[in-house]
């Protein structure tokens, strides 16, 4: 196991794929989702998987979230939840907070909160695929 620890909040398509890839790369991953079914599905594949609401501050503290090296807010659709979760992760002092945005304005709000890296999955994937299409020998990145 590599010693960097990640917490992924929201195990939808983006969050689960990110969490599984980090596991494959040899890192420890705590997955958090408020949907019990989602957590049950993922629990065999992650280091830990917990049913919790990302805005439940006491719960996040009890999970020792502040000790993680990187927190990823992978909630998109519910902008309010995404923003509240990002604020809590920042306040808890996680060194690097990454969050997914679904719109430019959502991204700007996350940046204003001090989120270290904002990701726009669809936009970023579009750019990546365009590069791969015109540069066939480009290594996957
Ligand atoms: P994706 O495209 O990655 O599937 P999405 O944007 O379609 O994501 P979202 O509504 O963002 O879907 O939800 C992603 C995951 O986050 C879901 O599994 C959902 O249960 C979880 N989630 C949403 N809000 C919270 C919350 N407040 N606390 C914990 N988990 C949450």
UniProtKB/TrEMBL annotation:
Top-level taxon: Bacteria
What is the recorded name of this protein?
Answer: Potassium uptake system protein
Q: Where is the RCK N-terminal domain?
A: 3-119
Q: Could you provide one GO biological process annotation from this protein's UniProt record?
A: potassium ion transport
Q: Which residues of the full protein are shown?
A: 1 to 141 of 226
GO MF entry, a single one = monoatomic cation transmembrane transporter activity
């Amino acid at each position: 196991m590599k010693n960097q620890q990640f917490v992924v909040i929201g195990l939808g398509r983006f969050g689960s794929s990110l969490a599984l890839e980090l596991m494959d790369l040899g890192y420890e991953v705590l997955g958090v989702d408020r949907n019990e079914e989602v957590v049950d599905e993922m629990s065999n594949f992650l280091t830990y998987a917990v049913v919790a609401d990302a805005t439940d501050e006491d719960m996040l503290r009890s999970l020792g979230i502040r000790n993680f090296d990187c927190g990823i807010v992978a909630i998109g659709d519910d902008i309010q939840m995404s923003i509240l979760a990002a604020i809590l992760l920042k306040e808890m002092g996680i060194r690097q907070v990454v969050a997914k945005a679904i719109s430019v304005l959502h991204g700007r709000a996350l940046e204003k909160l001090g989120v270290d890296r904002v990701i726009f999955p669809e936009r970023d994937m579009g750019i990546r695929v365009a590069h791969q299409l015109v540069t066939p020998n480009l290594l996957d990145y």
